[in-house]
């Protein structure tokens, strides 16, 4: 019993340390957003300051953060919706149907997960230039049709949770494949889809590299690009920069709060296979 108690105490200590490691950077970021640049240069502070509104005002004077929020929200929501819908459709096709190229397609998807997307940026730039899509959101949103991470995750969930008997019963009742997908596969995959909604939204919201290469106009810049633009100039307003970073994570926190319960269920998907 003593050994079990000691192991439990060690586990709790480890969990507390991991929690602190995750929370402290966010706390320091928020605290820094309330201090002026001069105060930040003097050293680290753990108590909030009184310059939050001033920093937000300076941030709005340097960049149009409201427009950046709209741009990032538009790209993130559209990309997430497309990746979830078509990723689930692809995963269902690979899970349910047995055809000759099934294994080859699955191998290609796995390989694509290991190849950095930055390697194809030159080809993407030339393609967008030839199609006249540069400085638009289309080349940023459209690749979300083929999100290999979503396909892999949802396929693993379907293999562990989807009942073949249920799908066969629906076919016997006269349901077509499209109706089965919308009426059974999508609703029953909600935990996995909620998980991927979080990960995809965060990924698209924080995407810096692709918009930096393909977008040129300031009024089309996303939040990461606007924060990067605050590095320009001889005088660095650290208070305004920290305020911009703190504000930029608010949508992510809001999305997480709405989908947190389903996220937990989705992370446990496949842990127990009946």
Automatic annotation (TrEMBL):
Top-level taxon of origin: Bacteria
Residues annotated as transmembrane: 9-30, 69-92, 104-125, 137-158, 179-202, 239-259
Location(s), subcellular: Cell membrane
Domain ABC transmembrane type-1: 69-260
Entry keyword Transmembrane helix: yes
Keywords on record: Cell membrane, Membrane, Transmembrane, Transmembrane helix, Transport
Major subcellular location class: membrane
UniProt keyword annotation of Membrane present: yes
Gene Ontology BP, a term: transmembrane transport
GO cellular component labels: plasma membrane
Bilayer topology: Multi-pass membrane protein
InterPro entries linked: MetI-like (IPR000515), MetI-like_sf (IPR035906)
Homology family: Belongs to the binding-protein-dependent transport system permease family.
Name assigned to this protein: Carbohydrate ABC transporter permease
Top-level taxonomy: Bacteria, Bacillati, Bacillota, Clostridia, Lachnospirales
